[in-house]
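pls read this stuff:
=====
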Amino acid sequence: MVDRLERLTNLVLVLLRDGRPRSLREIADEVPGYPPEGEARRQAFERDKRTLREGGIVVSTAAVDGPDQFGYMIKPDDFYLPDLDLDPEEQAALNLAVAAVHLGEPSGRDALWRLGLPAPTGARPLAQLPALPALPVLWEAVRQRAAVTFDYRGEQRRVAPAVLRFRGGWWYLVGLDLDKDAARTFRVDRMDSPPHAGPPGSGELPVGFEPTTAISEEPWRIGDGEPVPVDILVDAELSALVEQQLSSASVVERRHDDSVVLRLEVTNVDALRTWLFELGEHVVVLGPPQVRQVIIDWLGATAAPPLEKGSAKARVPAARRSR
Protein backbone atom coordinates (compact mmCIF):
# COMPACT_ATOMS: atom_id res chain seq x y z
CA MET A 1 0.00 0.00 0.00
CA VAL A 2 1.19 3.54 -0.85
CA ASP A 3 0.63 6.14 1.86
CA ARG A 4 -0.54 9.65 1.03
CA LEU A 5 2.84 11.30 1.68
CA GLU A 6 4.46 9.05 -0.91
CA ARG A 7 1.66 9.68 -3.37
CA LEU A 8 1.91 13.47 -2.95
CA THR A 9 5.69 13.38 -3.33
CA ASN A 10 5.52 11.29 -6.49
CA LEU A 11 2.71 13.48 -7.82
CA VAL A 12 4.92 16.57 -7.54
CA LEU A 13 7.77 14.80 -9.32
CA VAL A 14 5.54 13.64 -12.17
CA LEU A 15 3.88 17.04 -12.63
CA LEU A 16 7.32 18.72 -12.74
CA ARG A 17 8.77 16.33 -15.29
CA ASP A 18 9.17 17.24 -18.97
CA GLY A 19 7.38 20.57 -18.67
CA ARG A 20 4.17 19.31 -20.31
CA PRO A 21 0.63 18.83 -18.97
CA ARG A 22 -0.51 15.30 -18.18
CA SER A 23 -4.06 14.00 -18.17
CA LEU A 24 -5.46 12.41 -15.02
CA ARG A 25 -5.26 9.05 -16.79
CA GLU A 26 -1.49 9.52 -17.37
CA ILE A 27 -0.94 10.76 -13.84
CA ALA A 28 -2.70 7.76 -12.30
CA ASP A 29 -0.63 5.41 -14.48
CA GLU A 30 2.63 6.95 -13.19
CA VAL A 31 1.76 7.77 -9.57
CA PRO A 32 1.02 4.68 -7.43
CA GLY A 33 -1.83 4.79 -4.96
CA TYR A 34 -4.78 6.16 -6.92
CA PRO A 35 -8.05 4.20 -7.05
CA PRO A 36 -9.20 2.52 -10.28
CA GLU A 37 -10.61 4.75 -12.98
CA GLY A 38 -13.80 6.49 -11.92
CA GLU A 39 -15.15 9.13 -9.58
CA ALA A 40 -13.07 7.88 -6.63
CA ARG A 41 -9.88 8.53 -8.61
CA ARG A 42 -11.05 12.03 -9.57
CA GLN A 43 -11.92 12.88 -5.96
CA ALA A 44 -8.57 11.57 -4.68
CA PHE A 45 -6.71 13.65 -7.25
CA GLU A 46 -8.72 16.78 -6.43
CA ARG A 47 -7.89 16.34 -2.74
CA ASP A 48 -4.19 15.95 -3.56
CA LYS A 49 -4.26 18.97 -5.87
CA ARG A 50 -5.93 21.06 -3.17
CA THR A 51 -3.31 19.93 -0.61
CA LEU A 52 -0.46 20.95 -2.93
CA ARG A 53 -2.02 24.34 -3.63
CA GLU A 54 -2.60 24.96 0.08
CA GLY A 55 1.11 24.23 0.54
CA GLY A 56 2.05 26.91 -1.98
CA ILE A 57 2.67 24.61 -4.96
CA VAL A 58 0.99 25.97 -8.08
CA VAL A 59 -0.70 23.23 -10.14
CA SER A 60 -1.51 24.62 -13.59
CA THR A 61 -4.20 23.37 -15.97
CA ALA A 62 -3.78 23.26 -19.74
CA ALA A 63 -5.59 21.78 -22.71
CA VAL A 64 -4.38 18.37 -23.96
CA ASP A 65 -5.28 16.23 -26.93
CA GLY A 66 -7.54 13.25 -26.39
CA PRO A 67 -10.74 12.52 -24.51
CA ASP A 68 -9.53 14.00 -21.21
CA GLN A 69 -9.28 17.51 -22.73
CA PHE A 70 -7.42 18.94 -19.73
CA GLY A 71 -4.03 18.16 -18.24
CA TYR A 72 -2.06 19.25 -15.19
CA MET A 73 1.53 20.32 -14.60
CA ILE A 74 3.79 22.23 -12.22
CA LYS A 75 5.81 24.82 -14.09
CA PRO A 76 9.47 24.82 -12.96
CA ASP A 77 9.45 28.63 -12.66
CA ASP A 78 6.48 28.38 -10.27
CA PHE A 79 8.20 25.76 -8.12
CA TYR A 80 11.96 26.21 -8.01
CA LEU A 81 13.61 29.18 -6.35
CA PRO A 82 16.48 30.82 -8.22
CA ASP A 83 20.01 29.83 -7.25
CA LEU A 84 21.18 32.35 -4.63
CA ASP A 85 24.86 31.33 -4.90
CA LEU A 86 25.19 31.16 -1.13
CA ASP A 87 28.51 30.25 0.43
CA PRO A 88 28.53 27.87 3.46
CA GLU A 89 28.42 30.74 5.99
CA GLU A 90 25.45 32.33 4.22
CA GLN A 91 23.66 28.98 4.10
CA ALA A 92 24.20 28.59 7.86
CA ALA A 93 22.87 32.11 8.49
CA LEU A 94 19.76 31.38 6.43
CA ASN A 95 19.17 28.18 8.38
CA LEU A 96 19.53 30.09 11.65
CA ALA A 97 17.02 32.73 10.54
CA VAL A 98 14.43 30.13 9.57
CA ALA A 99 14.95 28.28 12.86
CA ALA A 100 14.69 31.45 14.96
CA VAL A 101 11.54 32.98 13.47
CA HIS A 102 8.29 30.95 13.48
CA LEU A 103 5.22 32.49 11.84
CA GLY A 104 2.99 29.46 12.21
CA GLU A 105 3.56 28.32 8.62
CA PRO A 106 6.31 26.11 7.14
CA SER A 107 7.12 28.53 4.29
CA GLY A 108 10.70 29.08 5.45
CA ARG A 109 11.38 25.35 5.61
CA ASP A 110 9.76 24.88 2.20
CA ALA A 111 12.03 27.56 0.77
CA LEU A 112 15.14 25.85 2.14
CA TRP A 113 13.97 22.52 0.72
CA ARG A 114 13.43 24.06 -2.72
CA LEU A 115 16.89 25.62 -2.56
CA GLY A 116 18.39 22.21 -1.78
CA LEU A 117 19.50 23.30 1.71
CA PRO A 118 18.98 21.23 4.86
CA ALA A 119 16.06 22.32 7.01
CA PRO A 120 16.91 23.50 10.55
CA THR A 121 15.87 21.63 13.66
CA GLY A 122 12.97 22.96 15.68
CA ALA A 123 9.23 22.38 15.84
CA ARG A 124 8.17 19.04 14.41
CA PRO A 125 6.73 19.43 10.88
CA LEU A 126 3.53 17.73 9.78
CA ALA A 127 5.56 15.60 7.35
CA GLN A 128 9.29 15.53 6.75
CA LEU A 129 11.14 14.04 3.80
CA PRO A 130 14.72 12.87 4.20
CA ALA A 131 17.13 15.58 3.07
CA LEU A 132 20.02 14.13 1.08
CA PRO A 133 22.86 16.17 -0.44
CA ALA A 134 22.56 14.21 -3.68
CA LEU A 135 18.92 15.16 -4.32
CA PRO A 136 19.44 18.69 -5.76
CA VAL A 137 22.01 17.32 -8.21
CA LEU A 138 19.72 14.49 -9.27
CA TRP A 139 16.66 16.72 -9.60
CA GLU A 140 18.59 19.06 -11.89
CA ALA A 141 19.96 16.12 -13.90
CA VAL A 142 16.43 14.79 -14.46
CA ARG A 143 15.26 18.25 -15.52
CA GLN A 144 18.15 18.77 -17.96
CA ARG A 145 18.30 15.16 -19.18
CA ALA A 146 21.93 15.06 -18.06
CA ALA A 147 23.77 11.77 -17.45
CA VAL A 148 24.92 11.25 -13.84
CA THR A 149 27.94 9.33 -12.59
CA PHE A 150 28.28 7.88 -9.09
CA ASP A 151 29.64 4.85 -7.22
CA TYR A 152 27.13 2.21 -6.12
CA ARG A 153 27.84 -1.15 -4.50
CA GLY A 154 31.54 -0.76 -5.23
CA GLU A 155 31.02 -0.05 -8.93
CA GLN A 156 30.94 3.20 -10.90
CA ARG A 157 27.60 3.75 -12.64
CA ARG A 158 26.68 6.00 -15.55
CA VAL A 159 22.94 6.59 -15.64
CA ALA A 160 20.54 8.49 -17.86
CA PRO A 161 18.04 9.61 -15.17
CA ALA A 162 14.31 9.24 -15.78
CA VAL A 163 12.56 10.00 -12.48
CA LEU A 164 13.06 10.30 -8.74
CA ARG A 165 10.56 8.38 -6.63
CA PHE A 166 9.84 8.35 -2.88
CA ARG A 167 8.88 4.88 -1.66
CA GLY A 168 8.73 3.39 1.81
CA GLY A 169 10.57 6.36 3.34
CA TRP A 170 13.44 6.28 0.82
CA TRP A 171 14.35 8.20 -2.34
CA TYR A 172 15.06 6.16 -5.48
CA LEU A 173 16.60 7.19 -8.79
CA VAL A 174 15.15 5.34 -11.77
CA GLY A 175 16.96 5.46 -15.08
CA LEU A 176 18.88 3.70 -17.82
CA ASP A 177 22.26 2.25 -16.83
CA LEU A 178 24.31 3.35 -19.83
CA ASP A 179 27.01 0.69 -19.38
CA LYS A 180 24.59 -2.20 -18.84
CA ASP A 181 21.99 -0.83 -21.29
CA ALA A 182 19.22 -1.76 -18.87
CA ALA A 183 16.68 -0.02 -16.65
CA ARG A 184 17.88 0.17 -13.06
CA THR A 185 16.73 1.59 -9.71
CA PHE A 186 19.17 3.07 -7.15
CA ARG A 187 18.46 4.04 -3.54
CA VAL A 188 19.88 7.54 -3.24
CA ASP A 189 21.12 7.27 0.35
CA ARG A 190 23.17 4.20 -0.62
CA MET A 191 25.19 5.93 -3.30
CA ASP A 192 28.86 5.53 -2.32
CA SER A 193 29.91 8.88 -3.79
CA PRO A 194 28.23 12.19 -4.63
CA PRO A 195 26.61 12.10 -8.06
CA HIS A 196 28.13 14.25 -10.80
CA ALA A 197 25.98 15.46 -13.68
CA GLY A 198 27.20 15.78 -17.24
CA PRO A 199 26.19 18.50 -19.69
CA PRO A 200 22.49 19.00 -20.51
CA GLY A 201 21.26 16.45 -23.02
CA SER A 202 23.98 13.90 -22.25
CA GLY A 203 21.45 11.57 -20.63
CA GLU A 204 18.71 11.41 -23.24
CA LEU A 205 16.53 8.34 -22.79
CA PRO A 206 15.68 6.09 -25.73
CA VAL A 207 12.26 6.39 -27.31
CA GLY A 208 9.78 4.20 -25.48
CA PHE A 209 11.73 4.00 -22.20
CA GLU A 210 9.15 3.47 -19.48
CA PRO A 211 10.42 4.19 -15.94
CA THR A 212 7.37 2.64 -14.28
CA THR A 213 8.52 -0.80 -15.44
CA ALA A 214 11.84 -0.33 -13.63
CA ILE A 215 10.39 0.31 -10.18
CA SER A 216 8.08 -2.25 -8.64
CA GLU A 217 4.91 -1.55 -6.70
CA GLU A 218 6.29 -3.96 -4.09
CA PRO A 219 9.08 -2.25 -2.15
CA TRP A 220 11.11 -5.42 -1.50
CA ARG A 221 11.61 -5.70 -5.27
CA ILE A 222 13.04 -2.19 -5.62
CA GLY A 223 16.79 -2.31 -6.14
CA ASP A 224 19.36 -3.89 -8.41
CA GLY A 225 20.63 -6.60 -6.05
CA GLU A 226 20.49 -10.28 -6.88
CA PRO A 227 16.94 -11.57 -6.26
CA VAL A 228 16.63 -14.01 -3.35
CA PRO A 229 13.57 -16.30 -3.00
CA VAL A 230 12.09 -15.80 0.48
CA ASP A 231 9.33 -18.03 1.89
CA ILE A 232 6.74 -16.33 4.09
CA LEU A 233 4.09 -18.13 6.14
CA VAL A 234 0.88 -16.08 6.44
CA ASP A 235 -1.73 -17.21 8.96
CA ALA A 236 -5.36 -17.93 8.12
CA GLU A 237 -6.56 -14.51 9.27
CA LEU A 238 -4.64 -12.62 6.55
CA SER A 239 -3.69 -15.31 4.03
CA ALA A 240 -6.42 -14.54 1.48
CA LEU A 241 -5.87 -10.78 1.67
CA VAL A 242 -2.07 -10.96 1.37
CA GLU A 243 -2.23 -13.48 -1.47
CA GLN A 244 -4.62 -11.22 -3.35
CA GLN A 245 -2.42 -8.14 -2.87
CA LEU A 246 0.85 -9.77 -3.87
CA SER A 247 0.55 -10.37 -7.59
CA SER A 248 4.19 -11.44 -7.90
CA ALA A 249 4.12 -14.05 -5.12
CA SER A 250 3.89 -17.77 -5.88
CA VAL A 251 2.08 -20.19 -3.59
CA VAL A 252 4.43 -22.84 -2.22
CA GLU A 253 2.01 -24.56 0.16
CA ARG A 254 -1.57 -24.33 1.39
CA ARG A 255 -1.96 -25.74 4.90
CA HIS A 256 -4.98 -27.44 6.45
CA ASP A 257 -5.54 -24.51 8.83
CA ASP A 258 -5.96 -22.13 5.83
CA SER A 259 -2.55 -20.57 6.30
CA VAL A 260 -0.40 -20.27 3.18
CA VAL A 261 3.31 -20.22 2.35
CA LEU A 262 4.20 -17.60 -0.26
CA ARG A 263 7.50 -17.20 -2.09
CA LEU A 264 8.68 -13.67 -2.82
CA GLU A 265 11.57 -12.60 -5.04
CA VAL A 266 13.41 -10.12 -2.80
CA THR A 267 16.11 -7.65 -3.83
CA ASN A 268 15.64 -5.29 -0.86
CA VAL A 269 15.59 -7.04 2.52
CA ASP A 270 15.28 -3.72 4.42
CA ALA A 271 11.98 -2.98 2.67
CA LEU A 272 10.81 -6.55 3.25
CA ARG A 273 11.34 -6.39 7.00
CA THR A 274 9.37 -3.10 7.21
CA TRP A 275 6.44 -4.75 5.44
CA LEU A 276 6.68 -7.82 7.69
CA PHE A 277 6.69 -5.67 10.81
CA GLU A 278 3.43 -4.02 9.68
CA LEU A 279 1.80 -7.47 9.49
CA GLY A 280 3.18 -8.38 12.91
CA GLU A 281 2.34 -11.80 14.35
CA HIS A 282 0.40 -12.86 11.25
CA VAL A 283 3.58 -13.70 9.31
CA VAL A 284 6.69 -15.82 9.77
CA VAL A 285 9.83 -15.86 7.67
CA LEU A 286 10.63 -19.50 6.96
CA GLY A 287 13.76 -19.07 4.88
CA PRO A 288 16.35 -18.84 3.56
CA PRO A 289 18.31 -18.89 6.83
CA GLN A 290 20.35 -15.76 6.09
CA VAL A 291 17.25 -13.64 5.48
CA ARG A 292 15.46 -15.11 8.49
CA GLN A 293 18.48 -14.27 10.65
CA VAL A 294 18.51 -10.67 9.38
CA ILE A 295 14.86 -10.29 10.42
CA ILE A 296 15.48 -11.88 13.84
CA ASP A 297 18.54 -9.70 14.51
CA TRP A 298 16.63 -6.57 13.50
CA LEU A 299 13.68 -7.44 15.74
CA GLY A 300 16.04 -8.17 18.60
CA ALA A 301 17.78 -4.81 18.17
CA THR A 302 14.52 -2.83 18.00
CA ALA A 303 12.48 -4.70 20.60
CA ALA A 304 11.54 -2.88 23.78
CA PRO A 305 13.35 -3.88 27.04
CA PRO A 306 11.75 -6.78 28.91
CA LEU A 307 8.86 -5.87 31.16
CA GLU A 308 9.33 -6.09 34.91
CA LYS A 309 8.28 -9.26 36.65
CA GLY A 310 4.57 -9.29 37.36
CA SER A 311 3.61 -6.94 34.53
CA ALA A 312 1.52 -7.96 31.52
CA LYS A 313 3.35 -10.09 28.98
CA ALA A 314 4.45 -8.20 25.90
CA ARG A 315 3.47 -9.63 22.52
CA VAL A 316 6.38 -10.41 20.22
CA PRO A 317 5.86 -10.40 16.45
CA ALA A 318 5.58 -13.97 15.20
CA ALA A 319 8.34 -13.38 12.67
CA ARG A 320 10.74 -14.22 15.48
CA ARG A 321 9.30 -17.62 16.29
CA SER A 322 10.09 -20.89 14.64
CA ARG A 323 7.33 -23.12 13.31
About this structure: The chain is about 35% helix and 20% strand. Residues 228-320 form one domain. Residues 39-54 form the longest helix (16 residues).
